[in-house]
């Protein structure tokens, strides 16, 4: 912690993983001899750069850009870019660290990395976003590549931003290198199912957990936080499987729709118009729909909770509230949305709990499928790609569950995910020598 002062989220992510690894250290003393844990905490490379751009009034703006290339034991660095005013090195490192184990769990040949900027895309014009993305890529391009580092989207980076980033990469390098970014548009190298994959995957993982108790999504009352890429697709999939999803939120407040969220209306407001969640209540025109300014969706009674917005959005107080309302499963669609105290409360109360590095791995797994399609100059159908995603999510669930059994903590998906993800990376690092 002294080496990385002030990086609170990074400390939190490392602590959570290391707490799960005691049993591994006893079983595999060679990891300690090779200082595997210390090496894993130190990124292989960290890049911090200036991003100058001009706003619509002609004023010069300066943001800070980051790319943390954390671990390449299993493949090229892979992980998203986040554009949000809260981004600083501690956030990028927490996300990059988590990404190492998540990517390992998918079973695909991808290492871990993450990047982003403190740029706030909210309220910016398309032209401003484009100028920012072009400036960002003008520095980043020299560090990335199909065999080096393959960024994707995350908070604040969707199809529009990936398009501008890809265009600038192509222009600077004079190479149509499809495999340099994932999350591309379908007509220019993207993969079907990639936009849906994280939210769909979170629900598929939850379904596998529910099955272990003889349950399914059918008839469940589900609360979802957020209304971005992950939340929208989690809502859509849960409702397809027969659940009633009651909520969605943004950083201003949340809506409750007792009839079940109208996903077409929500997509229109959030994806097409880039509007606020409050508009849903105004346009739904039903007594069974209301908007709550501020507050949290965790105040709504539910049997399944899917936090899909941001880190540390669900704390011990919220966990107690959810447990009292009879929640049976909680799955992290977002990265680290539950605090350590909330996670412990769920586990101690026998709630099925899926950590983000397992439950939201469907996004990066489908990015790896996009890389496969780019490498073979092929494009797969929606049905085929969704089938692959389903197989991958079931595989991750089973790997977490069997590893938890093997290490004497049955049902503990946190330990299962951390240990299974770690061992594969650690063995590759041992094999590749002291680098
Ligand atoms: P988006 O930018 O598409 O959406 C984020 C959503 O969360 C927005 O609706 C945002 O609202 C909302 N939000 C942010 N802060 C809060 C808050 N404090 N309270 C309530 N809502 C809030 O991002 P994604 O959906 O892509 O990402 C969400 C999470 O999922 C992140 O943790 C991300 O790292 C993780 N994730 C994403 C993957 C992907 O494929 N996209 C893959 C794996 C993980 P507002 O508009 O007000 O900011």
Automatic annotation (TrEMBL):
What Pfam families does the record tag this protein with? Answer: ELFV_dehydrog, ELFV_dehydrog_N
Ordered alphabetically, the record's keywords are: NAD, Nucleotide-binding, Oxidoreductase
- Annotated site (Important for catalysis), which positions? 154
What residues does NAD(+) bind to? 198, 229
Picking any one GO biological process from the record gives: glutamate biosynthetic process
Q: Which GO terms describe its cellular component?
A: cytosol
What does the record give as the active site?
114 (proton donor)
Q: Where does substrate bind?
A: 78, 99, 102, 153, 367
Q: Which GO terms describe its molecular function?
A: glutamate dehydrogenase (NADP+) activity; nucleotide binding
The Glutamate/phenylalanine/leucine/valine/L-tryptophan dehydrogenase C-terminal domain extends over 191-433
> Sorted alphabetically, which CDD domains does this protein's record hold?
NAD_bind_2_Glu_DH
What binding partners and quaternary form does the record give?
Homohexamer.
- Assigned protein family: Belongs to the Glu/Leu/Phe/Val dehydrogenases family.
The protein's matches in NCBIfam families, at most eight in alphabetical order, are given as: PRK09414.1
What is this protein's record name? Glutamate dehydrogenase
Source taxonomy: Bacteria, Bacillati, Actinomycetota, Actinomycetes, Micrococcales
């Amino acid at each position: 912690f002294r080496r990385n002062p002030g990086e609170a989220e990074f400390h939190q992510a490392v602590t959570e993983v290391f707490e799960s690894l005691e049993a591994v250290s006893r079983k595999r003393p060679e990891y300690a001899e090779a200082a595997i844990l210390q090496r894993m905490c130190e990124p292989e490379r960290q890049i911090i750069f200036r991003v100058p751009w001009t706003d619509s009034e002609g004023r010069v703006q300066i943001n800070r850009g980051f790319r943390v290339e954390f671990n390449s034991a299993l493949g090229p660095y892979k992980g998203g870019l986040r554009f949000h005013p809260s981004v600083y090195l501690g956030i990028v490192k927490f996300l990059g660290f988590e990404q190492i184990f998540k990517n390992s769990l998918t079973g695909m040949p991808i290492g871990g990395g993450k990047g982003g900027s403190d740029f706030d895309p909210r309220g910016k014009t398309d032209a401003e976003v484009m100028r920012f993305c072009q400036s960002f890529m003008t520095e980043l391009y020299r560090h990335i590549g199909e065999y080096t580092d393959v960024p994707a989207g995350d908070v604040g980076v969707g199809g529009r931003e990936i398009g501008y980033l890809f265009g600038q990469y192509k222009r600077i390098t004079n190479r149509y290198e499809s495999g340099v970014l994932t999350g591309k548009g379908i007509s220019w190298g993207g993969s079907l199912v990639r936009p849906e994959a994280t939210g769909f995957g979170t629900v598929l993982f939850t379904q596998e957990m529910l099955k272990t108790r003889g349950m399914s999504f059918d008839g469940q009352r589900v609360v979802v936080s957020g209304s971005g890429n992950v939340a929208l697709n989690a809502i859509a999939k849960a409702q397809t499987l027969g659940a009633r999803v009651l909520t969605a939120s943004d950083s201003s407040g949340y809506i409750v729709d007792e009839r079940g969220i109208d996903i077409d209306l929500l997509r229109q407001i959030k994806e097409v118009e880039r509007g606020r969640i409050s508009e849903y209540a105004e346009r739904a025109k039903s007594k069974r729909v209301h908007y709550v300014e501020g507050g949290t969706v965790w105040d709504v009674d539910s049997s399944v909770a899917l936090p899909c917005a941001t880190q540390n959005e669900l704390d011990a107080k919220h966990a107690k509230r959810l447990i009292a309302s009879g929640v049976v499963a909680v799955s992290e669609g977002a990265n680290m949305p539950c605090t350590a105290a909330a996670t412990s409360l769920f586990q101690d109360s026998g709630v099925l709990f899926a950590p983000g590095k397992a439950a939201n791995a469907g996004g990066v797994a489908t990015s790896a499928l996009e890389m496969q399609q780019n490498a073979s100059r092929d494009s797969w159908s929606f049905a085929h790609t969704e089938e692959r995603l389903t197989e991958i999510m079931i595989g991750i669930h089973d790997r977490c569950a069997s590893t938890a059994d093997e290490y004497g903590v049955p049902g503990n998906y946190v330990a299962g995910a951390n240990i299974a993800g770690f061992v594969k990376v650690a063995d590759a690092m041992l094999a590749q020598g002291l680098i």
